[in-house]
Every structure is written in C-alpha cells, then in structure tokens.
Design goal:
The structure is a homohexamer. In chain A, strands 1, 4, 9, 10, 11, 12, 13, 14 and 15 form a 9-stranded mixed beta sheet that branches. Chain A has one domain: UDP-N-acetylmuramoyl-L-alanine:D-glutamate ligase, CATH 3.40.1190. Chain A is globular and about 45 Å long. In chain A, α1 crosses α9 and α10 packs across α11. Chain A contains 11 helices and 15 strands. By secondary structure, chain A is an alpha/beta fold. The two termini of chain A are about 35 Å apart. In chain A, α2 links the parallel β5 and β6. Chains in contact: A-B, A-C, A-E, A-F, B-C, B-D, B-E, C-D, C-F, D-E, D-F, E-F. Chains E and F meet through β15 of E and β8 of F. β3 of chain B pairs antiparallel with β3 of chain E, so a sheet runs across the interface.
C-alpha cells in the first residue's frame, strides 16, 4: 500500500504529573508530540505505511523526537536536520472546573526556520498516496507557509489526496493571517477537517444558535456550516468534530462527515477524560484511514470517532490503540469490562 | 475460632502506572495476588484466622509472594516449595470506553506442576472449619484439578464447609473442560459463588432477557438462575454478584444471596472505580465471613456487597479494609466525607 | 495596602500517593499546611500582603514550613522559633464510597507549647487591617487559646477586622470546651465563617430538616441559622459553606453570605474532586479578599465560592490559583476547555 | 529450635530520596525500623525463630510496623497494643564530606509510655533461648528501663542467654544516666556488643591512642578495652565493631570478639556504602546466630562481620541477606561479580 | 554500506530500582534487552545499518521489544512473529561486596520454540556483510542451535563475515553441551569474542596462573589462550575482554585482540560502575565496527574497549553512546569534566 | 547588616534522573538555577541579607523561579517582569569516564532582552554593601553587558564592593568578545574569582606546566597567575578554585586566595561527587561571606573551600548547607559519620 506523508512540527512536551499545576512541578514527564506527528503515529498503529517530514535540530531532543516516531514504524528518512532548538510545549492537566493549560515555547524552532531547500517534495512523495498537514504548520513562519504551499502543489501534481486539519492557534498568528494563508492552501485540499471553533476562527463561518462554551451543539447547524465550507473551497469532504465540554473531566464527543451531498453523524460518546490532547489528531488519522481503505462515509466517521474517543483514555498525545480496538468500540463494546 | 483454608495460585502482578498502557510502561508496579490469596487476605483483615495453600518456587518471587501474605497474618506454613517459576500477570487499567486489560504469563508455574504429594490435606485441615477455592485452581492443570478434588473430599470428610467461586477463565480451559471438571467438584461444594457470566460459561445456565454488556441486569431473572443452580448441584447457598458496566470508570455493583428458599438482595452501589480487580474475591471473603459468624442472609449479603464495593476504591487486588469500615458503609455512611 | 495577619499551626503533611491507603504507603508526599497558613497563601496568590504567625521548631521541618510560606511571598518575620517538634498530619485520599482519612500526630507541637511572650501583637499588627484565625488555633492548648484572646483584643484595639472560621476538630477538644472558648473569642469577631456542621458542633445551633450525610441541604434553613448566629454573637457577617457529598469523588459545593440583613447565595458547583482538603480555607481567603476590596455581598460570595470550587481541583492544601482564574470561573467559563 | 526474643522500639522511618537533604524532600520513603527489630528480622532471614516485643499504637502506623515484621516471619504475638503514637525518625543520606543525618521525633511513643503490666515475660520467654535488647530500650523512659530489668531477671531465671548492644543515644539520656542504668542491667547480660565509642560513652572505658574521627583504630587497644569491660561486668563475651570512616561513602569495617580469654578479629572490609544504618544490628544478629549455632569464636566473628558488611550494601535498616549470601562472602567471594 | 545482521533472544528486562533487592521491589524498571539486540543497537548508534532477527510473540511485550529496537533505527523486518511469551529476566544491582544478581524466566519463550521455517536466511542476508550471534542463541534450545547452524552456513555461502561472542550461560546448558554445539558452530566463525571465563567454560582452555575472582589477570597468559583458541578452530581473530572485579562498584576493564599473529592490548580503564550489564556486548559492537571500517588492530581494540568502558556508565543494557563520544575517550579525554 | 546584590540569569533547569542520559529521559527533574542565583541562595543560607536582580517572564516558569528564590529568603523585589521566555538548560549527570553534559536553550530569554530602563540601580543598591555578578551575565547580550557596566559604575559610586566570577561560557561568546567586555568591566571589580581555565579563556593568562585535563595542578604556578591578574586589572583580591578531575565521580578540590601580597591555600578535598554543578558558585558565596564578615585570608579561603566542597554532595545547584555545617567541616570533621 502506498504511504501517507505528514508534515509539521514535533515538539518536546513537558507535562506536570497527575493533576499538578506547572507551578508546583518538581518533575515533568517527557514526550515528543505534535499534531501531524500524532496523525502519523496513529496511522502507523493502524498498520498504514507513513512518513513524517519536519526539520529537527542535531541535539538530544531532535534525536529523541526522531526515535519516538521511529519506534512506531514511522518513516523518518525525509526529516531535515539543522537549526538550533526543538520547540517545547508545557502542559498541565485540568480537572473539574479548572481547564487544562498549555504553555508554548516554540519560537525559533528548527522547523520554523526551515527553508525550501530542506525538502525535496518530489522525492518525498514517491510511493505516496496522501499528504496531510494542519493549520499549525503554515502558522509557524512565512517560510514554512511557503514550503507548505510547495508541498501541496507537488502533492496535487503527483496525484496525492491532500487533507488539512484547520487547527487554529491564536498564539501563532491572527485570524486575519490564518484566513489569508489558509484560503490559499485550501485550494489544494481535498479533505478539510475542523472542530467547531476552527471554522469560525479561520474562515469566519459561524454555526447558528450554537453556544460552544455551554456545551450545546447542534448537528443541523453544523451540517450547514460543513456545506458552506465545502462549496466555498471546493473541498471533496468536510469533517467536523463536536465537543461538549461538561467539565475538564467529562466531555461528550461526536463527529460528522459531510461527503458533498450528505452528512453522516457518528454516535455521541460520553468520555471520562484521561488526556484529551491529541484527540483531534486521532480523529484525523481515523478519517484518513477510513477514506484510504474505502470505507463508506458512515463507517469512516464511525471509525474516526471511535478512534478519537479512545484517545481520550490514553496518556500522551499519541493514540496508542490498534485497529482491532477501534473496531471493537465501533461494534458496540463500550462498557469497559476487563479484557482477560 | 477455627481457621479458613484457601487453595490456589498466587502470581507476580506487574501493572502499568496510572492509566498507561502496557506498551508504554517504563516502570511497573510489583504486587503478588491471586483469587484465593485475595480471599485469604481479606478474611485476615476482618480478623479471621486463615491459611493459604499453594506451591511456590524457591526464588525471590516465591519468597516475596509468601512475605506479602504473611504480612497480613495469613498462615503460610502449608505452602509447598518447589518448581521453576511464579506465574505472572500483567495489568493495565482501562478508562472510559477503553477496557482494562490483563495479560497472563502463568503457564509452567510452580503450582500448575504440583503433585498430590505436595499437600497433606488431613494435616492442613486440622483446626479448620472452611475450605475455599475458585474455578481457576482446577483449571491450572489436570493434576491440580485432581489435587483440588482430593482437598474437597478430605474437607467434607473432616466436616468443613466448602465454598467455590466459579471464576471462569477462558485462557485456561474451554467451557467444556470447565463444565466437566467443575461439575465433578460441585458435589462437594456447599456455597457456590459466581458472577453473572460465570454460570452461563461453566454450567450453561443462562439468565433470560439479560444483556450483560448493555448493563441491564434483572434481579428476578437471576433468582431463577440461582435456584436452578442450587437444585442441580445440591448447593446449600448460591451467591451472585451483578455488575452493570457503564464505563471502565463507572459501574453499578450489587449482589444476591439465594439461601435455598429465598433470594436476598444487597443495595446497589454506584462505584467510581480505582481498581476493580479483586472485587469478586472481596465479595467471597465477605460472604464467608458473614456465614461463619452466623449473620442472617440479608446481613451476610449486605456485608459482602459493602466489602466488595469498598474494594473498587482500593489500589491492588487485596481488599485493605477493616470490618469496621465495611460496617460503616453498610450502615449508610457512604458519602465519602473526610474521616478526621 | 495594609496586610492581613493569620495565626495558627502549620504542620508537616505526609500523604499517601494517589488513592493508596496509609497502610500500603511505600513513599509519602511531603507538604506543609494548616488552616490559617492555607488562608495566608491563598491571599498572597491573590496579591494581598499577608503575614503568618506561629511558633516553629528550629529543625529541618520548621525551616521547610517557613520556606514553603515564604515562597508564596507570605511574610514570616513574626514567627516565633522554639519548641521540640512540628505537628504532623497524615492523609489518605478517599474514593467512591471510601472516605478520605486524616491521622493527626500534632500533640506537643511547638505552637501548642507557645507562651504569651512569644508574640508581640502590637508590633505584629502594625500596618495590618485584618486578623484571621480558625477554631483550631484555640483548640491546640489552653495557653494558645489565651494567646488567641490576647491577639483578638489587641486587633480590636488597633482597629483591625477579625474573622474566624469555626473549624471544629473533635480530636482536639470536646464540643463543650469548644463552645466555652469560642463563645468568649466570638465577641471580638466581625466575620464568622463556618460549614454546615461546625455551627451545630460549636454553638449548638442546628438547621432544621437538613440531613448533611444524605447530601440534602436547604438554603432557607441555613439562612435562619446564619441569622441566629449573627444575632447571638453580634457578628457583622456570617458565611456558610454548603457541601453535598455524593461520593468521595463527587460533591456539590456552594456558599451563602448573610450580611446582617440578607442572605446571598453563590452558584452551586458540581465538583469532581482532585483534593478537597483546604477548600474551606480557600473559601475564607476568597471571602476576606472580597470584603477587603469592597466587593458587594453577591460578588464576595461568588468570588469566595469560585475560589474554593477551584481548590477542589488542586493537589495539596494551598489554593494555587490566581485572581484572574477565579474571575474567569465566576464569569461563567466553567467547562474546562484547554487554555492554550 | 528455641526462639530468640528481642525487645525495643520500632519506629516509622521517613527518609529523603537518594542524596536529597530533608529540607528539599518533596517525598519521603516509608519504612519501619528500630535496633531490636532490625536484629529480629536479620535472625529471621537466617532461618531462626524469633519474636519481637514492643508496644504499638492502634493506628495505621502501628499496624504497618507489625505487618513489616510479620512479613519476615517474625512472631509479633506478644506486642502490646495501646498508646498514642508510633515514634518517628527522619533520615537523610550523607555523601562525601557531608555526614548522614538522623532527626528523631520519638518522644511520647507508645512503647515509651508502656507499663509493667503490658508484658508477661514468663509467657513471652516460653520456648525461648535468648533475649536481646539494646541500650536504646532502657533509655526510652524510666518505666521502660524498669520493664527491661524485669525482662532480664525473668530471662536469667528461665535460663536464657542475654545479649545487649550498648547503642548509646545522646538525644535520649546523658552519659551519667546511661552509666547508672546500664550498669544495673549489665549484671544480667552474657554477651555485650558495642562499637568503639559506646564503651567510652556508657562505661567510661576509653581505648588508648585511638582517634575515632581520624579513622585510626587499633586492634590491640580494643582488646584491652574488651577485657576490661568483660571483667568489670562479668560478661562472658564482648564483641566490638570497628569502623574507620574515610568519608560518608567509604568506610572500613571490621569486628573483634573477645571470648573471655582471647580476641578474635574478622577480616577488614573496605565498604562502599549504600546505607549504613542498621549495620551494627546486622552484626549483633550475626553474632547471636553464630553463638546459638555453636560456631567457634573465629567463625562467629567472621559470620557477624560478613553479615554486617553486606548490610552496608542494602537499602533500608533491615539486613535482607540470606545465610548463604553471608557464607559466600565469608568464603572469599567478595568481588561482586554478577550472579546469573 | 552493507548491513550487519544479529540473531538472538530479546527479553523483557525487569530491574529493581537503584540498589534495591528484587525481594523489596515495589516497582521495577521495564526494558527490553538481550546480548545480540544490545550489539545491534550499539552498532546502530555508531551509524551502521543493522538488522535484528528473532522470534517475538504477538502481544504487548513482543511489540514493545520491537519498538525499542526500531527506535534506534535497527531494522526489524525479518523478525518472525509467533509463540506464547517473551522471555523475561529480572535484575538487581549489586554494591560493594554484594554482587549483582540476575534471575532468568526465559523458558518457553517464542524464540526458543522457533522452527527453521521461521527464517529465510538467504533473504535476510541480502545486502549484508556481517553476521553476529552469541553462545546464548544456540543454548536456547536444540532447534535454535540448528537454526543458528543454518544461518552460519548460509552466511558463509553468501560471503559474510561471522562473529560469535561465546557468552556461556550455565543456566541454559552444561559445559559439555556447550562445547559440543559451539565447536560445531565454530567452524563457520571468523571472529571469536570471549571473556576470561567463557573460554574455559566452553572450550576448556584455561589461562595459567590467573585467578579471576581475585582480580589478577595477566595479559601474557591470555595471549597464549587466544592463540590456542585461534589455532584450534581456525578463527581469523580472537578478542578477549579482561575484567578485574575489585567490588560490585569498581572494576578494571581492558581488552586484547589477537589478530592471528600478534596481540594488541587496550588501555586498562578503572571504571566506577553505573550498570555493567551489556558491557561485553558493547565491546563486541565496537570490535565489529572497527573491523568493518578497516581500523587497524590497535585502533580496533582501543575503540571497542573505550566503547565498552563507557557502557559501564550507562543505565540499561544498550550502549547509548555515539561514535564521537567513544573517540573522545579513546583520544585521552577521560576525566569526566562537564561538557557544556 | 547591609545586603549583597547579585545580578544574572536564572533558568529552568531540567535534568535527567540519576545517571540517565537526556536521550533516555522519560521524566526530568525541575529546578530553577543560575550562577548568580546560586550565590544569592548560598549567602541567604549563611544568614546574609541578599537581593537577586534579573528579568523574568510573566508565566509559570518566571513565577516559579521567583518562588524558588523567595523560599530561601532572597529578596526578589527588584526583579523586572517582562519578555517571552525563561532560559532553559538541560543536564545529564556523568559517571566514571562519561562526562556530565549540559545543553543550553537560553537564547531569547527575558533577561537577554532586558533594557537599561528595567533596572534602577540607585534604588537597588540602597542598603547594599556588595555587588556580585559573573561573566555569564554580560555574555547574554550586548545590552545586558551594558546594563552590567551601569550596575558596576553605580555600585562603585555608592561605595559597594564588587566581585566577579569569570565563568567563561564558550556557547555564549568567543574568547575575543569575552576579553573585550570583561576587561572593561574588570576596572570596577574588587574581587576576581576564577577557575583554572577561565583565566586563560577570558584574559589569556596561562599557568605554566599545568595540564588541567590530566588533573595535575600546581599551586605555585597559579600563584603567579593570580598575581599577574591582580596587577593587570588592579583587583584587590584574586581567588582561584583548582579542580583535579580523576573521573566524573571523583575530583580533588581546593582553592587559593591571593590577597595582593600573599597566596593562601585551602586544604585539598577528595570529593565523591553527588552533583558538582554550582560548586564554583558555592565557593564565591563562601568567599564573599568571609570577606564581608572580616575573616582573615586563610579563614576566608578555608570557609569558601569547605562550603564548595560540601556543595559537591548536594543534589541541585543551590548549596543547601548552613554556616554551622561549613564550620564543622572546616574544623576537621570530614569523615561523614552519622549526625544523630
């Protein structure tokens, strides 16, 4: 099977233990994670050949990030080496009424200072069928936005499908900057993935009568949003994840896939959260997996929703679940009895 | 007071930390546990004299397993020493829609290779009033099944009560093997303990209109099951635990004791799970404690249900609660206010 | 701004990890905490100048307790040094139907053996506007009760407001002793803070038709209690926290402030508990902060309730939240979405 | 074989991790230890029947201390239950030029407040052949000194051998108090065990030309000391451990046994220290073991020195080594090659 | 560059923390290691293409072992999947006079039950230049010995160099069995690697006047041994590591390479041990690296000795050092100043 | 007593556990440290009033760094708040022949982007008698070098003594840049502190016949260096620390103070290293403490050397020792016996 290629920033993730605040951390957990890396690992866990592309510094943290990906079987041969530092993000886990908190220290990272010559997309896309990136990648710096554009153009030229998860990050750029750049990239995108607030932030398309913070989301309203989005940018498909946040511990989670004609809704899961970071990426990976493997729209959104539902129960950003585990949840076994 | 004797396999239990998966474990917690050992420790914590019988290898892990039991005051004098290895089981804790998972590595354990000469049941049952084993013990190997039968016969000969928790384990034997062996042992058993699926797996008696996975359990249906079971094997009493699994974190838990004439139901507890492994054993211990101490049927099932309810809040397989703590819960103090 | 002074006992707190019982603890977390110290730290985190007064032994634990306070900017210049030991308290965290448990080992602590000459209240109260203590302080020993009285008298003489959190501890004194001593101190108190059981324990005033253990609390009933209390002791204000304990993990939490004329009720929060010890102190700190800063009664009780709601999500006794975080919760953002 | 009985105080030991200072400890290791308990455990590990006698409070820490002993097979049936607290000691591990540090918080412990009626020595010494205590026990309080005297008298009456390790603790009593009490107890002692400074502190007998702090110890000088001591108190044997402290990490360790006629010296071990607390107790246990089992004087001191040498390599106060491991070291295998 | 292929057993390694004994372990570190896997990882860290061949069970531990190798860039494509369990080994770290201890639980492992059809050596050795195994591999079971023979034959047929580290394990087979099997395999081996005791154990060739346990090793004597060995089995080269064990913490470490004509000795390093397991494998990897890259004999043994010297300072069995770090040590920088 | 002011960069320090490499770190210890902060804390621990000046970002890490200093009683009132990030440094501990390693990620830190208006030196130096900085501070950026110059000028104007520890960091600037800037600052410095390599790196003054890497240092040679340095820059005193690095675990450590006329040498300590980072800063603090308190030159260098000797035994960069502990070591108690 031809491979999937993802492109973005992998960071050193340092997180406080348990429910400790960063302020009181005497020790922190060390991981390596990033939106596109998370997608790559998730796909590898489903058995897909996948390559991850980024730029890493030649130091212990660049090497460890690479080792982390490689352990899952993700191909890292096209990573460019150079630059001064690996971006860092710090995380503390919220509970009850206290939200989780992420502190970024990613400026001046190796990837943010990459140049066009670091990547030979024609070679990278050899034997590839799919290219995935998120809205974080072009937000890293204007030069990375440009590289992203080149990748998209080359991908289309070589007949790859292109997916993009909007993933708006207000710390990296303004809504205006996002809209301008993302609109340009959108023309190469086949499958657009977003959560309920990204679409408003990046493309200014707002669902009616929906109050995200209050946890009331309405399917009908989002079908309209998806359709508007699809028509505006000529996407083939639009997928939207819908989160109702009851507290930092308890969320409802579901998703919708609009295939150009019709919206397909997944079951809504009541999730008791272990770690929700990376659940959007787990959804994207499930979606790509379903689409590549020819699942119908309903099965695709069901697979993607079940995969990302499970991610909420996993420590760390990577979705450490197998295809069989996702299918078991899809097929109605969701009561959490012991597997002996 | 005369002692209780339990017989089975104690294993090295290695568990991933917190909600980590085994795949990502960089360190694991070390414990020693097993169904009959759990019952023994629980009874010792209630103040009962109790002896544990097994076969342990002469290495660090055999010794540590023995030390663990001895620390609770469990008598370990009749343990047979020999064999090559202590059985191991690995555990990861589930959360939300992801179930807990147990990986066994127990083949070729010291106890599974025990022979009849390892145990002198006449001597072991001196000063004893009760013998308890579970369906795991005879499943370990044909020779252990035979030893189990000898123990049962000697127990009845010396006037002990015999209890058995069905505890069907599909990794150890087939339903057919279980049915054949357990039916033979059943004739020596006075008190049969089971959960809602064991009875179907081991004896093929199925509750009507009950869908375990969906969490809908019906008392009336299980009363009929208990009665059928009691009549078929001439048990004096049958106790059934009823679990409704809402998620890996939240279960409803209750129990029923059928005393030959009538069914007595405990309160149903909504438990928020810390660690549910060992809760069935905690129930068995509570039941045996109540029966030995002459509690009436209602009080017996209430004590056993409260004891096993508390087990869900305890890390590890052993039920580290005192009789006073169980009674406090029975007597309506179940809101979890701080005990200063 | 003039400072707040708090007076009491800070202890070495040793707690079992996660949900382990003290009996199974192989290692314990080390903290330093105490009711009045918790209030001081909370106020410092809101930006208030605050001094903490106690007596500490000249050993590693006395020094570490002082360092802990000083790290938050709490002034420790008036701490008296001497005595033989720092009081200790051991804590295990409850779960589900198993309550949290606190074991005190605080007899013979340095502060409990303090004498009047250890503290020069005239000097301590220079540049101060508020004096806060709890019912634990006078309960430590008769001499500390006497010192507390002297502090109250000096505080009133110098025009400070005085607040007292009743905080009845049955391990330290009887209800009769508490009532006698607290009634005498009450005459110097402006603001009385209590939970639903303290008022009954210390002053014998009982709410009608309320069953604390069952979690049914009724506002109307507590308004009457607050009014009775206010009139009996001539308090200016009475604040009562109302906890409905569903389980050791889940509580409902709200509060009421009676300002002499009218009762103001906060929102009721459904809290999923990380650590509830110190939540009453967090409430007291929020209340004092609001009153000093001229918040109206509704805003004051809202601020105090939100602050103490957040405390339930924080590990340790200190309320590690900023004023901005409390305000964010007050202003309706309570769904726990990630703050990136 | 008849059992050994030891009598003393077991404490909650809380130690900083690794080489951390107590001041910086964020978590501490939890153990239960005490000089006589250490001897009991060591003997149990060599296969001797042994009982431990003390008084423990009825709380989690009293129970855990008892469980700790019981896990090694030490008989705890004669422990008296009562009192308010378990004594505590805090430890930090020294390194290089920084010495290890112990902070005691043992005043008012359950055993220190024991009374004569707590112990029925006639019953305790049934089936016993040896009674061991250390100079710490009578130092706990005058009543415990009196109980210790009664135990010694009963032991002699019933024909037991009595051994005493001087173990002078300046925090518990003055040299004068020690000398007065220990001289009275000495008349019942058969075997006196001491380190190089105890004899001077307790009995005022000083070795010539020896400078302990400088690490220069001289055998000849200590032979004279041992002989003087033996004659003064009519001991049958005197054993002295000799430590040369090069740094907190490196010590030389040897021992001498004077059997009334002649001094027998062990090999001198250059030990690289993991944890030296309890090494004197490990020596005492080895000595008692050798004497009970009829080893000749040279073999006895060799066994005891090898046992205590190994203790320096073990974390915790208990000497977790088997008889076979001690013998392996005695028999010249001391280069630490891997045992596969 | 053509790759190196190694073949053997990788196990789950569970080790006690710090200097704890296995008996007292409350938690254990989790790693995956084995002699040939260690060599593979070490070579990968030097930048060599390397493939690892074994048979792994399809469970979490088989997958994790594979992930561990893959993270270092070791090719795992030829691993056969099947069997029931991953072998386990438990380790405790010795100190001072207490030796390190390894407890094996490797019987019935997936690789030990492999059959010839599991491996297609012709395909495996495509693009390979070197095959390495150790004496552990054929000791696993007769069928694995047979597979090993087939691999050797195919390797020679395809022109690969073959190296073998004798690595005698007395728990797996007798000296007689080892001698018989290893002698047969030896005829295909070009480079024989051994430590000072292996040669005696496996081939009965003993160095004169050398007392391993006493730490006195003599170069001259080992040159004769190497020469005898080389002539007997027609090896091209023989390399011997020489360890002088002063204590479990301090060893002297050096090596000799006999190239058929002359012996080349490395510097002797005084190592202060962090973890010595895997140091022999680190030596083998260094040796293979030097030989493949055309280093002269002196440089080869210097590189190998420096690499394995550094291994002693690394936690875990894998030698986590780069080629540059080995060269830095070779080039006289061995005083351990901070690298800023 | 008038205070000491120190000025520099405090960083987030993330270190691998035990002897793990950064590459294998699954969790890291969190501290806050920096050369001048280390000096400030050390002085505070000796009882000196001390203020620390820097610029910190308004985030969790800026606040935590401030809290860390404040806990020791260091005055943080003159810290400027602003900027984007706290500098980070990563550390792994070396062992045996493997050196410790520090990876800096400090570019773009808040302090490196400070401007002159951030600090009002006239106000900062009120009630101060001493100003201390190190060569790291001016190396951070040209603007910080300029601020440092202004501080020196203001310090001299207000009659403060000025000390500077050369602390050359090759990652921050070239030798040429260092020489240029440091020479200009030197004219305001009274006391120059350096290690054996700094003087050569910064001022090009080289000791004859000394080979640092080989661990051979010669006092006589360094006396000449000190004298040259003193005369060239008109320093009042020059202090040099001399380290002989035997391995990453074992160093010899001594120091010399040249007071303009004569050189005073400390004892040479053989240190077994726990953590050597910060030992130079501990020396500087000891030196400043001795000079301020009027110790004679011999006592000053003895106090400083003993203080820094002890630092090697302390985990973390801060020297957590009291004045009494330093004096105890100075006064010949250096064998590391337990302090009970």
């Amino acid at each position: 099977m031809k491979k999937v290629v993802t492109f973005g920033e992998i960071m050193l993730k340092l997180s406080a233990k348990g429910y400790q605040r960063l302020l009181q951390a005497e020790e922190m957990n060390v991981e390596y994670a990033g939106a596109e890396a998370n997608v790559a690992v998730s796909l590898a866990n489903f058995g897909m050949p996948v390559a991850y592309v980024s730029r890493l510094p030649e130091n212990d943290f660049g090497h460890a990030a690479c080792m982390s990906l490689r352990s899952f079987g993700v191909n890292t041969d096209s990573i460019a080496w150079g630059g001064n530092r690996l971006g860092i993000y710090f995380a503390e886990k919220g509970a009850s009424q206290r939200p989780s908190k992420v502190v970024y220290d990613r400026a001046h990272s190796a990837i943010s200072e990459a140049t066009a010559t670091d990547f030979d997309w024609e070679s990278i896309f050899k034997d590839a069928q799919w290219f995935h990136f998120t809205g974080i990648t072009p937000a890293l710096s204007p030069n990375v936005a440009e590289i992203c554009l080149q990748a998209c153009q080359q991908a289309k030229k070589m007949g790859l499908s292109v997916s993009c998860d909007l993933n708006y990050r207000s710390k990296l750029w303004t809504k205006e900057e996002a809209q301008k750049t993302m609109s340009r990239l959108a023309e190469y995108v086949d499958v657009c993935i977003a959560n309920e607030s990204d679409i408003a932030d990046v493309f200014g398309i707002v669902a009616k009568d929906s109050d995200v913070e209050k946890g009331q989301l309405r399917q009908a309203s989002y079908e309209i949003v998806a359709e508007q989005l699809l028509q505006k940018f000529n996407f083939q498909k639009v997928a939207i994840t819908l989160r109702e946040s009851i507290s930092a511990n308890d969320n409802n989670w579901s998703a919708m896939l609009f295939d150009g004609t019709k919206a397909f809704n997944s079951r809504k899961y009541a999730v008791h959260i272990v770690d929700r970071i990376g659940s959007g990426d787990a959804f994207a990976a499930g979606l790509i997996y379903g689409l590549i493997n020819g699942y119908d729209s309903q099965k695709t959104v069901d697979f993607a929703a079940a995969a990302s539902c499970l991610k909420h129960s996993i420590e760390g950003d990577f979705n450490l679940v197998s295809k069989a585990e996702v299918e078991s949840l899809m097929n109605n076994n969701f009561t959490g009895r012991i597997q002996r």
